[in-house]
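Appendix B, Record 12. Input sequence as logged:
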Amino acid sequence: MNYQHAFHAGNFADVHKHAVLARVLTHLRNKPAAFRVIDTHGGAGRYDLSAPEATRGGEWRDGIARVWAAREPSEGKAATKDAAAALLTPYLAAVAGLNPGGALRAYPGSPLVALALLRPQDRLIACELEPRAAALLQTALRRDRRAKALILDGWTALAAYVPPKERRGLVLIDPPFEEAADFTRLSSALAAAHRKWPTGIYMLWYPIKERDAPDALARRLKRAGIAGLLRCEISIAPPRGNLGLTGSGVILVNPPYQLDDDLALMLPVLSNMLSPQASTRIDWLAPAR
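Logged structural output:
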């Protein structure tokens, strides 16, 4: 595996993905029963924004840095923006937890975003196969008894750990998409996991460089007969073929009740923080039964 997320940590796609992740977990917390988060491709867990990898491309400056600068409430802010800011609070609290004092120096990967929202009875399994990232992930999680980091291929973990014993929870599937086949593998792996655990919540992230692969993914999932498919995307520019990332997509299976309303309110405000030219799309690929 050549992909290193440290070069991209905190970019606009991370902001989108992690803000949605935080909303899902906030809904799960509303019921007392324990839940489990299974993060199939957890990465390093924590990213130093002053490290050479992060500074080389500086992608975080057009992602979390913009949202961080816009997070403070201001007088005269519209009620819609106030409500959207409240929906972003759990996500931004997870970022703040790594940045005491307010200066933005570190960014949490999805395992640490999830960990920030777990209660004492909840659990996290985060998997990573790349040796250096896996070692960093183990370090990031080792002091918390609620979490376990596994040096394991994420696709293997998806087959091995679904369903969890809690029977409540979220599976985050966020592969590196180094190969075009990852789009096909994502739909087939999700279909297999869904057959084993049809009531679980699944969150699939995918990059948008062109429309063919994301749209084909949506069609395959619809043909699989899976109900309750909610798609949300943020695009900061029109697709440019494979010349660069211009959008971020998330497909949710069995999203919590009223999550679509949350996203309809939150994502336009979030995308405007990222870029005045950004656009969003939220739609149901398949309604819930």
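The chain has one domain: 5-286.
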